[in-house]
From TrEMBL:
Gene3D superfamilies (UniProt xref): 3.90.1150.30
Organism whose genome encodes this protein: Streptomyces thermolineatus
Source organism, top-level taxon: Bacteria
GO molecular function, one term: DNA binding
Name of this chain's protein: MmcQ/YjbR family DNA-binding protein
Keyword check for ATP-binding: no
InterPro entries hit by this protein: YjbR (IPR007351), YjbR-like_sf (IPR038056), YjbR/MT2646/Rv2570-like (IPR058532)
Signal sequence annotation: none
Keyword entries, A-Z: DNA-binding
SUPFAM superfamilies: YjbR-like
Amino acid sequence: MLDGMTPEELRNCCLDMNGAYEDTPFPGNPGLVTCKVEGKVFAFVPQDAEPPTVSLKCDPELAVQLRAAHPAIAPGWHLDKRHWNTVTLDGSLPERMVRELIEDSYDLVVAGLPRAVRLRLDRG
């Protein structure tokens, strides 16, 4: 399992981002946790997926390259496939890469926030 990365470690990695919090906004699917910053989702983490998965926002050009290079990275499941990838934590990707993908997703979402909010998050 990804050099030891457990679902809990995945969750903690997402929540370690500045200003990040988790939410369960889908009453019909309480097992789908979202990780958000300023009300914007940067990660979807299904709690019952086996092996664990996480869906992350990604630059469209990079998303295509990642999918071509790594079988564990697929177009975002039930998401805009141009901007989202679903990453399966089957042990084939280094933990560091998964952490970087989470950070990239967070950064893409933060980049779309108002300047004052971005500055506050940068200082936090």
